[in-house]
Each structure stands twice: as structure tokens, then as C-alpha cells.
Amino acid sequence: MSDLTPTDSAPVQQPRRGLVLDRDGTIIVHVPYLCDPAGVVLLPGVREALLAAKSAGVDLFVHSNQSGVGRGMFDLAAVDACNRRMIELLDMGEQPFVRICVASEAPKDPAVYRKPEPRFAQELLRDFGYAPHNLAYIGDRGSDLETAARAGIGGIGVATGLDDLPAELAELGLDKTFPVFASLSEAVEHFLKTPL
Ligand SMILES: [Mg+2]
């Protein structure tokens, strides 16, 4: 009688991973209160970095604070037009991002999705079932990484924006928690090599 016990050769299911990217100063050049698609410029190496993440099976999201809407400076349609232009320049297909969250509140308004509110991250954890260490924010501001800290997930800084991110993180007490890299490529590479 042969023993037909199953072998252990069944494919191992890779844990699902996701990256939540800030937009201004992380994917595109930070132009304060940008509302004209003609002003959208990709930061260097961003397309290659996002393609590397995508080909490694990472789900990509965008979470962007756009208080210019809440302040009455422009409307959501202007934000959408800039997002569409960004996607066009990325040239990664119609919809490289699984979800895009635009937080339109002004700072004085009750925060719903405005970073550092962790609501969007919590929704992603709930809806996609990521383990907390398999979901991370990448951003150029303290508020991006404060969002990650409040959601209990990963965070990676990029020094590609207008602010002094290391100083902001030190002020928030998060400088020992999250690394800061000089480019999105290095940040994505760090995420991809972090043990699952
Ligand atoms: Mg930013």
C-alpha cells in the first residue's frame, strides 16, 4: 500500500502587502495648493519605484491632504484633474492605485480623513486584511508618518518635499521609529526587503 499523505509542495500564499503614498512632495513635486494639472511634475525615479512595488505584488494607494478644497480655494474636480494628470504621467495603466483618498477638510474643520487621522489606514486594514506590518505609509511630512503611528502600521519618510522631515519627526518623537530616505526608490526598496 502506498502512502498518499499530501506532500508539502503546495504553493505558499504570500501575505498581501500595501503601500499608501502621499502625493505632494512624495509622488509629484510639491507645489503648495496645486490645482492646475499643467503644474503636475513627477519627482525623479518615481515611476520606476512604483513599477518595482507593483511588480512585487504590492497594492498601491494614495492619501492626500487637500485643505485648499476646505479653504474654498479650489474644488474637488481640480484635485481629480491633477490626480488624472499624475496617473497619465506615471504611464502605469488606467488605474495604478487601488484607492485614492483625498482629505478635503481645512485644518479648522473636524478631521475625517485629514492626516494624521488614521481612518483611511484603518479602512484598508479592515477591507483588505493586511497584517499591520504589511501596510506602510510613505510621505514627506511628519503628518504622513504620524498617521502610520496612529494606525499602528509601518512608515517610511522621503526627504523630497518642502519641509525638514527629520526635524518634524524629532518634534513628534517619531525619529527613532521611522527611517527617512533621500528618494522614493530607496523607500520602496526598503519596504520590499523588510521581512514579512
Ligand atoms: Mg506631502
How would you characterize the overall build of this protein?
The chain has 196 residues and is an alpha/beta fold. It has one domain: Rossmann fold, CATH 3.40.50. Helices cover 34% and strands 14% of the residues. The chain is built from 7 helices and 6 strands; from the N terminus they run βαβααβαβαβαβα. It has helices spanning 46-55, 67-70, 76-90, 119-128, 142-151, 165-172, 184-193, and strands spanning 18-21, 59-65, 99-103, 135-139, 154-158, 180-181. The chain has a 6-stranded parallel sheet with strand order 3-2-1-4-5-6. Helix 5 (142-151) links the parallel strand 4 and strand 5 (154-158). Helix 1 (46-55) packs parallel to helix 7. The longest helix is centred in the middle third of the chain and has 15 residues, at 76-90. It starts with 17 loop residues before the first strand and ends with a helix. Bound molecules: magnesium ion. Magnesium ion (MG) binds at residues 22, 24-26, 30, 139-141, 161.
Summarize the model shown.
With 196 residues, the chain is of the alpha/beta class. The chain has 7 helices and 6 strands; from the N terminus they run βαβααβαβαβαβα. It has a single domain, classed as Rossmann fold (3-Layer(aba) Sandwich), CATH 3.40.50.
What proportion strand?
5-15%
Q: Provide the structure class.
A: alpha/beta
Could you list the spans in which at least 5 consecutive residues all have pLDDT below 50? none
For the record, the CATH architecture stands as 3-Layer(aba) Sandwich
Percent helix, as a range, is 25-40%
**Mean pLDDT score:** 94
User: Can you tell me the number of structural domains?
Assistant: 1
C-alpha termini separation: 41 Å
- The 3D shape can be described as globular
Report the major sheet. 6 strands, parallel
Tell me the CATH superfamily. HAD superfamily/HAD-like
